[in-house]
Design brief:
Helices cover 22% and strands 13% of the residues. The protein contains two helices and four strands. Strands 2-1-3-4 form a four-stranded mixed β-sheet, covered by helices on one side. The structure holds zinc ion.
Length: 99
């Protein structure tokens, strides 16, 4: 088990954990793009630049990643998106509530 204290590095192609897609336009590292009504932790994460809030987009294939330059794109690896989203939210105090 590895503890992750610094989920985002600014150097594309350098150190990375898991799979964080890079922007097809500028090559910058992506942050998860979240739709729907964000939880409070998501606002905090977005303020730190570790998450992007997409609002309520109704689209067949909505983008799910955004870079620092606010390019948006879609990556097919939903698991990587979900894992990174959860990592960022947990880092900002989010706890999964059991059903
Ligand atoms: Zn970009």
């Amino acid at each position: 088990m590895r503890l992750i204290t610094s989920p985002q590095r600014r150097t594309p192609g350098g150190y990375s954990f898991g799979v964080i897609p890079t922007c097809p336009d500028c090559g910058g590292p992506g942050v998860p793009l979240m739709f729907g009504l964000p939880v409070r932790e998501a606002f905090d994460a977005a303020a730190d630049g570790q998450l992007a809030l997409g609002g309520c987009i109704v689209d067949d294939e909505p983008p799910n990643w955004q870079c620092a330059q606010q390019h948006r794109w879609r990556d097919a690896d939903e698991m990587a998106w979900e894992r990174q989203l959860l990592t960022v939210l947990v880092a900002h105090g989010y706890t999964e509530r059991g059903d």
